[in-house]
Amino acid sequence: MRFFIIQGLILLSALVLSGCGKASDAKSQLPELNEYVLPKNDNAEISTFYYKEGTIVYAIDYASYFEYQMTAYDGSFRFTEDLNTEIHIYDVLKGTDRLVYRYDSSYPVTIVDIFVTDKRVYWQEYGADGFCIWTSSSSENGTYEDPQMILSSLDISDAGWLICPCLYDEILYWYEPNGDRYDLRGYENGHIYTYHDKVYLSSPFEVPLMSNGAYSYATKSEDGKIKIVSKKEGRDEIQIDCDLSDIGSVFSNHRFLAWKDGYYNEYLIQIYDLENQSFSTLDLDYFFSIGLIDDFLFADTKEEMILYRLPGLEKIDSREGRYLYIQQNDDGALFCENADTGGILVMECSK
Fold first, then answer.
1. 176 and 183 Cβ atoms separated by less than 8 Å
2. What pLDDT, on the 0 to 100 scale, is given for residue 16?
3. What would the 3-class secondary structure string for 110-126 be?
4. Phi and psi dihedrals of 28, rounded to 5?
5. In a 3-state reduction of DSSP, which class is residue 324?
6. Cα gap 135→218, rounded to integer Å
7. Residue 54 CB coordination number (10 Å)
8. Domains and CATH numbers, the chain
9. SS3 string of 167-219?
10. Measuring CA to CA, how many Å separate 259 from each of 163, 198, 223, 274, 282?
């Protein structure tokens, strides 16, 4: 079992934090922002996507179209082969798209998560019977063949629970309820391990996420006192007492800790600078999610994506659009959907 450290991410009103590994005593180069519109049929919907090293792997399904047709035809509409769920890979440099896997099913299948490593693809499908996670390796012709189910609702304590996983170094991590707290669990080499217990979450949809060896989380004592704990390889554990009744999410990278003052807080973010041991506050009218690359903070609001430079929170750029749910891959790049155009915005450090 490998030694690891992870970082947290919340699914709704999310924050994602990562670092590019540059020295903190010099100004970092601005991250690159590029937006891509993925090809799909008019009746299809993109259910999930994942960016890694110049490619976007995404799933499309016809579940909404099928449901609409079933209603329109009084239940007599028939599911056909061309309505099966598909997984595609889009090359952002070449602008090419290719089909790598198609289901052979008699009903619509919805993929809610997808992850890609150098060796394999993993995806989670969810339905009335709960969830299951599949994996497949790439064949010689570049398609994914003979996927194997490695995890399902039957493998966790709360049957039917939809887990919100992340993937790092071929290991799946997720939070699982245990009484009024959560356990950090993981799937590795055919076995499920508990890596940490008694984590306090204000939402069951928080996603554990690897980022530069940093893992931050909250604990809550029996008398209601909240403490933030931050761990990172090569650094002593850091604990911060918080004078809060609730905490929405806790995040960290190579230099910064950040948290929301309660799960339903949609405008206030507290930031702690580990280097200067100082606090700052980002006060927005509204935000949906936040992400960090190196010393830059991204915030997507109802109308735009805003870029700030840390630690001074200097606003240096913005891009109009309704951007939703910033995600992070295991390389530290950020990506999210533009709800206005259906495009995928990728934010990453130049290499």
1. yes
2. 54
3. CEEEEEECCCEEEEEEE
4. -85, 150
5. strand
6. 31
7. 12
8. 7-348 (2.130.10.10)
9. EECCEEEEEEEECCEEEEEEEECCEEEEEEEEEECCCCCEEEECCCCEEEEEE
10. 22, 18, 21, 14, 11
Q: Mean pLDDT in each 10-residue stretch from start to end of the chain (351 residues)? A: 30 46 60 94 94 95 88 86 94 95 91 90 86 87 86 76 82 88 90 90 80 80 88 84 81 82 77 90 86 87 92 94 89 91 91 62
Q: Which of 249, 252, 248, 351 is nearest to 292 (CA)?
A: 252
Give the pTM: 0.87
pLDDT at 147 (0 to 100): 93
SS3 153: helix
**Residue matched to tokens 């950020």:** 334
State the pLDDT at residue 177: 87
Residue 38: count other Cβ atoms within 10 Å of its Cβ.
16
Helix and strand counts by DSSP (H, E) for the chain: 1, 30
Tokens of 336: 């999210």
Residue with tokens 């996507």: 49
CB 89 within 8 A of CB 96: no
| DSSP sequence for 212-259 | TTEEEEEEE-TT--EEEEEEETTEEEEEEEE--S----EEE-SSEEEE
